């Protein structure tokens, strides 16, 4: 039997990942200071899937620090159930529009709070569920 090889992108250098971890911890602290629930979703033993700002480090070479907004599970479950039954994407039900609006408003809030706290951040890829990409601290 042959070993299966995967063409995975390279990981960032350990010192780069350590810097990203430090940055992610600072992001969590600043969001918590602003009154938002924030947690490191990528750490073992940390809260997983709870509502609030989920901060994580992507260790790939082109990765970094990302913040995703997680609404309460009840809202997400309701939307997932509707999608499972099928929807008209041109005219989605009110709960789906509300879910999208929550994500859009929270992304803007996260960007504003992080900028005010001295971080350089930009919009993430909403198709991947990433609200914000934190590049670092502003010079």
Concise synopsis of the structure shown:
The protein is α+β, with helices and mostly antiparallel strands. The protein has helices spanning 14-33, 73-85, 94-116, and strands at residues 38-40, 52-58, 64-70, 119-123, 132-137. It has a 5-stranded mixed beta sheet with strand order 1-2-3-5-4, with helices on one face.
Q: What can you tell me about this protein's structure?
A:
By secondary structure, the chain is an alpha+beta fold. The protein has one domain (14-137). 40% of the residues lie in helices and 20% in strands. It is built from 3 helices and 5 strands. It has helices at 14-33, 73-85, 94-116; strands spanning 38-40, 52-58, 64-70, 119-123, 132-137. A 5-stranded mixed sheet has the order 1-2-3-5-4, covered by helices on one side. Strand 2 and strand 3 form a beta hairpin.
Topology:
Layout: H1 14-33, E1 38-40, E2 52-58, E3 64-70, H2 73-85, H3 94-116, E4 119-123, E5 132-137
Parallel strand pairs: 1-2
Antiparallel strand pairs: 2-3, 3-5, 4-5
């Amino acid at each position: 039997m042959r070993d299966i090889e995967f063409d995975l992108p390279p990981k960032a250098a350990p010192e780069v990942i350590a810097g990203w971890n430090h940055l992610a911890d600072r992001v969590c602290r600043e969001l918590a200071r602003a009154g938002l629930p924030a947690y490191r979703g990528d750490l073992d033993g940390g809260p997983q899937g709870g509502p609030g700002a989920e901060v994580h480090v992507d260790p790939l070479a082109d990765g970094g620090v990302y913040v995703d907004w997680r609404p309460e599970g009840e809202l997400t479950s309701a939307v997932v159930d509707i999608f499972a039954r099928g929807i008209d994407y041109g005219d989605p039900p009110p709960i789906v529009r509300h879910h999208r609006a929550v994500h859009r408003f929270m992304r803007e809030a996260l960007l504003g709070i992080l900028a005010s706290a001295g971080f350089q951040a930009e919009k993430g890829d909403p198709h991947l569920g990433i609200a914000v990409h934190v590049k670092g601290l502003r010079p």
